[in-house]
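Review session, final week

We close the course with one last complete record, chosen because it touches almost every idea we covered. It is histidine kinase, a protein from Emticicia soli with 462 residues. Go through it on your own first, then we will talk.
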Amino acid sequence: MKKGLRFIFSSFAICVVLLATLSWISYDKIKDSTSYATAVEHTHEVLRKSEELISILKDFETGQRGYLLTDEKVFLEPYYRAESRINQVYRTLVFNVKDNPIQAQRLDTLRRVILSKIRLLRNNIKQADRSGELNKETFLQGKQEMDKIRVIVNRFQATERQLLADRRAVKEKNDDQTTSVLMLLSIFSFGLLIVCFLLIFLELKRRLKFQHELENKIDELNRSNADLEQFAYVSSHDLQEPLRKIRAFSDRLVRKHAEFLNEDGRENLEKITYSAERMQNLINDLLDFSRLVNRKEIGMQEVNLQETVEKVINDLSVKIEEKKAQVNVEKLPYIWGVSFQLNQLFLNLLSNALKFVAEGRTPVVDITYRLVKGAEINGVEDLRKDFDYHKIIVSDNGIGFEEEYAEKIFVIFQRLHGRNHYEGTGVGLAICRRIMTNHNGFIFAESQLGEGTRFILYFPTK
């Protein structure tokens, strides 16, 4: 499942990267297209201005000829306008080709030829005004200068047209490559999205199936809990009544007929009384455990663990004094929990610490506390590794046990020692684990034979 989710997340990440790449390529393409369009428009503008320059020179020359032929000043109006227009067009061309040294050099040459041409035209007009005669040699020089102008302008335009063709070729090549890349990326992204959709669909289908199975398990668990409730009812009523009668009749036998019983009879009667009492304790422990399992609504509240542990120590004060035990408790926090369950939890743990002690050894119990992260807890879910937990350690110097039994001791009715050595029903630690489960916490045991035991409790801070 984790591999499938990782693949889905990875695929979505790749799709996001591809979509970002597509967006960037599209943006870059639009930018390039805008740049190409600007460059093409720039080239067309240069070509138009060069044509306009030739046209103005023609108007310049035509106005001069008209005046020379007719001696009418009206023909000089285009002549005077053309001179100022030539300067404007020339400055525009210089500005447009400033990044092209070859074209800029041609414009510089063109400027000198145009100035020479204008001087010849002016000389023709001045000469006509003075003598009324025309100098054929001057006209021939003017024609030669105009031919030079046309040659320079033609070369100038040829270069611009070549630039235009080159830019169009690059644009077409770039458009073809961009289209191919965009098409491939789009197909790949679309394919990944389809795969992700199918995986999500399959995962959703699997989870719906799992949810259905879980609902069935919950129904089975509810039925099992109902059976356990029935068992608890039977235990609390039907089973305890015969036990009370057995104990009552055995006590009556002891009181009224003890002198008529021989040693063997009295011994058997004591065994009956002891067994009935042990059965009574076992039923009471089972009832306590079933109440923890079947409790549907638990009154959770903020509980002062310091006060809870002090109350437990006070309840065990007689046993603590008998064994001359030493109980050391650090400052404990407030936690969100059920007061009577937490009281029962520490009562069981401290009772065990006082019970399972080697002969002749003074019991020492230490209760320590610190705040930790969930990542410290063995086997915790990834989601809870960053959560804060109250870590409480209850350690003793008792008889301990072998490490292989660290989980077995929390199983109901599991005992590591015989009843003749240590009393108990084997339910206490199972109750402790159930209490920790009810509080969404964890309990672990660490021990070495003969060197004591450490019970490690983790309570969530929220």
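Two points worth writing down before the exam:
The chain has a mean pLDDT of 77.
The two ends are 29 Å apart (CA to CA).
Good luck, everyone.
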